[in-house]
Specification:
It comes from Nitzschia inconspicua. One of its GO terms (molecular function) is oxidoreductase activity. Keywords: Signal. Pfam families: NAD_binding_10. Helix 3 crosses helix 10. The chain has a 9-stranded mixed β-sheet with strand order 3-2-1-4-7-10-14-12-15, with helices on both faces. Strands 5-6 form a two-stranded antiparallel ribbon. It folds into 2 domains: 52-142 and 179-363, 3-Layer(aba) Sandwich (Rossmann fold); 144-177, no CATH class. Helix 3 (63-74) links the parallel strand 1 and strand 2 (78-84). Residues 1-20, 24-34, 36-49 and 331-335 have low confidence and may be disordered. By secondary structure, it is α/β, with parallel strands linked by helices. It is built from 11 helices and 15 strands. It starts with a helix and ends in a 10-residue tail after the last helix. The chain is globular, with a radius of gyration of 27 Å.
């Protein structure tokens, strides 16, 4: 405070020669110092950096969405926002120490609501949604096993054991959807269309979608989830066809004119990532061949989503992804041929290549899904 009083006294008109010049010089020095201090304070906040890409992660309260959001929160290249369905989901997300997501990074809106776009308008400026550059869609209908169906399955286990049949018949089980309006048509088609329209309205140029393998097969078991077949009439009722609705939403995105990265993961497992090699291909070719294992950890999938923001920027690509144990090279150093021509991104006992490296190698092939199938 004393410093400012002395400065003000010096800035008063002086009778001596050169007094005004000294005052002006001191004022310039003070303003320059003040500007440097302000610049230093701004530089200390990584979220305020103009170079950070602003990304909206939808379905941020889900298992995969949380992992994606967590990785973006820790990456100084990005400034993420997480979209969740309810206040309860928002509170759980903020309390989750593994995610480390502050409350101001959370947006609440129901993607299945007819007023979804209108509901988000108050959040455009308040949450900075009007300056978004990319979107990662992690929303999906979530099935739950019917309790009665599960009990019936357990009762049949001893009988199946005696008859030497498979102990558990998953195809005989019945499923319900987690939320009343959470069935595939509402979430995986209408909800995704709403999100794509939001991206178009906000000027978002790149959309990443977490979908699922199996979309080329109408008879895939996952399409039966949520359906009930009448044994007498043979007719099927209920809300199912999750893969068909996902694929229909993908086609909508493909025809939107936006840049996109559509990821079809295999079966998701909750294991640590970075242990196996990425294997990428298209059109469900990974289901074929002697190796029928088609799974991927959620953490590896999350890494691939983050990699898509940089490596997949400006691209229009859709592909399948799984992971497999690292394949060693032969004694003469020749890399074993990949099954079905898919891209095996590591061929030595060394640590597996990163998601960025795997995706970069795949994009060099200029392959993408054929939506005419």
């Amino acid at each position: 405070m004393t410093y400012f009083r002395q400065l003000l006294s010096l800035l008063k008109p002086n009778a001596g020669r050169g007094g005004n010049s000294c005052s002006i010089l001191l004022l310039c020095c003070f303003l320059a110092t003040l500007q440097c201090c302000c610049s230093a304070l701004t530089a200390q906040d990584p979220q305020s950096s103009k170079q950070a890409t602003r990304v909206l992660v939808t379905g941020a309260a889900g298992k995969t969405g949380r992992l994606v959001l967590s990785k973006l929160e820790k990456d100084p290249r990005y400034e993420p926002k997480g979209l969740v369905r309810s206040e309860a989901s928002a509170k759980q997300l903020v309390k989750n120490k593994d995610v480390n997501c502050p409350l101001e990074h959370v947006v609440i809106a129901d993607i299945t609501s007819p007023t979804f776009l209108e509901d988000l308008r108050p959040s455009l400026e308040h949450h900075g949604l009007d300056k978004l550059e990319a979107m990662i869609i992690c929303t999906s209908a979530v099935p739950r096993i019917s309790k009665l169906s599960f009990a019936a399955m357990l009762l049949k286990v001893p009988i199946n054991f005696v008859r030497r049949k498979p102990l558990v018949d998953f195809r005989s089980m019945r499923f319900k959807w987690k939320h009343p309006n959470g069935y595939p048509e509402k979430v995986d088609y209408e909800g995704q269309v709403n999100q794509i329209e939001l991206a178009k309205q906000l000027g978002i140029s790149h959309v990443v979608v977490v979908s699922s393998m199996g979309g080329t097969d109408q008879d895939n078991f996952l399409n039966s989830v949520g359906k009930v077949k009448d044994k007498k009439t043979g007719k099927t009722t209920g809300n199912g066809d999750i893969l068909l609705w996902k694929r229909r939403a993908e086609k909508y995105l493909v025809e939107s004119g936006l840049d996109y990265t559509i990821i079809h993961p295999g079966g998701l497992i909750d294991t640590p990532g970075g242990k196996e090699e990425f294997v990428l291909d298209v059109d469900d070719q990974l289901y074929k061949g002697p190796n029928r294992s088609t799974r991927i950890s959620r953490e590896d999938l999350a890494d691939l989503c983050v990699a898509s923001l940089s490596v997949g920027k400006g691209q229009k690509v859709s592909f399948d992804c799984i992971t497999r144990p690292i394949q060693p090279t032969s004694d003469n150093g020749v890399i074993p041929e990949s099954i079905n021509g898919d891209v095996s991104t590591s061929s030595s006992p060394d640590p597996p290549k990163s998601a960025e490296e795997a995706l970069t190698k795949f994009l060099e092939l200029s392959k993408t899904a054929n939506y005419a199938l």
